[in-house]
Write a structure and sequence with these properties.
292 residues, 18% strand, globular
């Protein structure tokens, strides 16, 4: 049987599934949006009869399928039993961002056509909870532009020679806003002296050199970075050997504006100097609330 690769794209309405499937199409996947789960296996067999013309398939399957969506797990089980390989990509975003996107697009939520958007979002979260738990990859698109989402998907799913075996994302964040759901490793840097309490530095962020110099000047910071570098250099080869293609390293402080941003930037430089492919992102740097 022809070895086909299926990507099942699912997740919350408004989280970016349309942009995602366009990206997969650009990468050479045969794509179908809103396929009823009951047709997955039949479609897989049709693809297997194309004599290699279709090798990679991306399917968007979500709650728009209505009652058919409830059969998804049964049909995925049949797909696996008949030798077809698949991976689930789950897209999500914060309630605040989803509401904003729905209002900007002037669309109604499929689970709240005549009610409040938030009611539909909460119903959908509950309905998709089990599916999210079984997902192979989760991407929180709350702070992604369409271009950044495309970059993230290419980094995670492209198997071409152009891209390295392991893509590392270093992600700064604030604990007060929650730990990012897609992190593989989380490091807490709240033990480092906080520039927020220095009046002349408070208004700046870790993207400013003044903050970088302040955060990196301390002996405790220097020792931490040495130990962190050694730890990651031990782990990364084992991740690659195990077949991992994407590693998300979370660097957290209180608000995600000062210390975590500076450390994430420095760690990115360290990893790039060792020829690793690294993407750096700052989730909470623009929040204005107290603390970092």
């Amino acid at each position: 049987m022809m070895k086909l690769k299926f990507i099942i794209i699912t997740g919350l309405s408004g989280a970016g599934k349309t942009q995602a499937i366009r990206c997969f199409e650009d990468m050479g996947y045969f794509c179908i949006d809103n396929l009823p789960p009951t047709l997955i296996l039949k479609f897989a067999h049709l693809c297997s009869q194309t004599k290699g013309q279709i090798e990679k398939v991306a399917l968007v399957i979500d709650i728009r399928g209505g009652k058919f969506f409830d059969t998804l797990f049964d049909n995925l089980k049949l797909l696996k039993e008949q030798g077809f390989d698949y991976e689930i990509l789950f897209l999500e975003a914060s309630n605040k961002v989803l509401i904003k996107r729905f209002k900007e697009s002037r669309r109604v939520h499929p689970l709240a056509p005549v009610g409040r958007i938030i009611d539909g979002i909460l119903k959908e979260r509950a309905k998709l909870r089990e599916l999210k738990e079984q997902a192979d990859q989760i991407i929180d698109t709350s702070n992604f532009t369409p271009f950044q989402l495309k970059e993230e998907i290419i980094a995670r799913f492209s198997k071409g020679k152009k891209y390295p075996k392991l893509i590392i994302t270093v992600l700064s964040f604030g604990f007060k806003y929650g730990i990012p759901v897609d992190t593989d490793l989380v490091f807490d840097v709240r033990f480092i002296p906080n520039p927020y309490y220095v009046d002349s530095l408070r208004k700046f962020s870790g993207n400013d050199e003044k903050i970088m110099k302040y955060v990196l000047r301390w002996d405790v910071t220097k020792k931490f970075l040495i130990k962190l570098e050694d730890f990651l250099e031990f782990l990364i080869p084992h991740y690659i050997k195990e077949g991992k293609t994407h590693l998300v390293i979370g660097i957290g402080c209180t608000g995600g504006r000062h210390r975590s941003v500076a450390i994430a930037r420095k760690l990115t430089d360290i990893l790039r100097e060792k020829s690793h492919s690294v993407i750096v992102k700052h989730r909470d740097v623009y929040h204005d609330e107290r603390g970092s």
